[in-house]
Amino acid sequence: MKRQYDIDWIRVLATLAVFIYHGFMFFNPWAWHVKNNETDPTYITAISLFMSAWLMPIFFAVSGINSYYALQKRTGSQYIKERLSRLGIPLLFGVMILTPPQIYMERVSHGQYSGSFFNWYPHYFDGVYLDIGGSGNFAFVGLHLWYLLVLLVFSFITLPLFIRKKPSVSKDLKPLHIIVLTFPLMIVSVLVDVVNLGGWDISFYLVIFLYGFFFFTKASFKPVVSRLLPKMMILACLTTVLFVYGFMTGMPAAGNRSSILLAAVKALNCWSWLLVIFAFADKKLSFSNKWLKYGNQASMPFYVLHQPVIVTFGFMIAEVDWSITVKLVLLISLAFIIIIGSYHFIISRIPFIRILFGMKGKRKERMDHKPNVKI
Known about the structure:
The protein is an all-alpha fold.
């Protein structure tokens, strides 16, 4: 199997995008764990809306693709074992170690607690954390690590289907199929309301995950989306304007025609941007270099660590009398340096810590990069 470097680039760049998005969350008007003393309801909010429509769905699309290739060289039990080690261990580490300080800072910044962290910590297990500003503290999803939990659940529930119904990568995918695939996403977005995470219901992520496995892996997928790129780009820009404008001018009440239309537009916007991103990556990012190799290794630790660092630094500067621009540049720059420094000098060098952050042990990593090694 030829390595698809464009998929690697998408994962690495999406991880950086999540980092920037959570930096914006400190400054936009939406509820979050800590907030700046001044928020921006215009440009930062508009950019946050634009990114929220496609950012987490693209992780699930890439995860679906990776699941397909993982099952080409692993048995079902090996696949689950790998998922438990690469997703379950960092999730558990995040829930028990990285999440409590964030909940504590949220409680202090929301005026719900005024003591020290060490006095508060025993209360971390008081009630289940369900929402920002709520009363429960135990965040079993690990806050931003909900992605790892949901992906782990998806891996379990879809495995029987994936084993029985392996897709044929050689079967042609036509432009009409791309259009038809839009409708399930719109229907789920409008009608299904199970659990909302990261701006979408988990059922929406499941559909995207299945699309990644069954359709994005077909040999004809990239040629088709490349031909559709100009049209998809126009559609993506148009639906972005409609979605952002519709949200910023006031969300309509749930259930009326305007809310249904806005939900359908958002789903269409997500799908069109996914296609644009995959088509663009195929054209421009089908190569490897030292930055991609480094980013591939660093992406999971970076994802696990980025929000705790942003929340901590944001908590420290929230009440400082600086402009939003100065704070944003400082927050993004220093948080990035801290995360990369922690990865480069600590996480990547200590075997036990590598495992906690979802990385392979160094020996396993060297074996995986040797030619003709059976896994």
